[in-house]
Structure prediction request, 341 residues.
Amino acid sequence: MSYALIRPALFALGPETAHALTLGSLKALQQIGLVRPPPASAAACARKVMGIAFPNPVGLAAGLDKNGEYIDALATLGFGFIEVGTVTPRPQRGNPRPRLFRLPQAEALINRMGFNNHGVDRLIENVHRSQWRGVLGINIGKNFDTPLEHAANDYLECLRKVYALASYVTVNISSPNTRGLRDLQGAAPLDALLATLAQEREALARRYARRVPLALKIAPDLDTGQIEAVAERLREYGIDAVIATNTTTARDGVAALPRAHETGGLSGAPITDKATDVIERLARALGGEIPVIGVGGIMSGADAREKIDAGASLVQLYTGLIYRGPELVTECLDTLCGAHA
Prediction:
């Protein structure tokens, strides 16, 4: 059944209710064998990024499956990689509801979820239970009540716990929904955090005889000087990739729409160009030394192509799936690598 036919019924529900219903239904169908992973991607789809072999360049962004509960079900949609989280050391409920809002006229979402998750230990249990053996990213953050001066301790705890299970680990310092988190993108805090994580990663690599890549996820609300400073620190501390971008706090192009006044991060079509511009400037600053993973406003295969043309090596989807459904994955694959199955 086409997603376009069922979307009106889903959009008649509250966003979080529809989210849970969609993922729960997909999981149920997968468990009884009515949906299965697609055939392996053609060789033309394969990419090697961060030293990892990706079967195709289209991934799922963090946020859709915060606790790693739906990995096997999401794998049936054809992603080349799946990123789960953001996960924190301790479980937390996130911000009060309502905290997720649709702006359908703009094909956008505003969320102020606040890293709601069941904690890193529960995520690890879920990953162990999953059968999928594809490329798995795990996105880590800090608890809302951990002071910024102790934030590194939260990231270290998560890194140590997920290291053995992750294909790569993403350090999320760019959500606008945890008070003060984006301050970690400043020069001095970022220096301290990346130095600490890089040192711990080397110790973990020796312990497990395996070097797990680290990626940093940044906001779209950085100016050129800030982007160049981030690029410099990525090089200095041996970070393996940068994910650009998270949601924006700006309301360009949507300010007059219902719900646009809600606090939180804006995603979807209104940030397509903004995210692509950051990718382009970041890729230029990095000079090809560190790969960029492009995310933000990919609503079509053409949008995915623009991210790649701007300098991204891989792309990730989230809000586009809410508006386009699984067909978006297929369209992006067809655009980026032709016949993919």
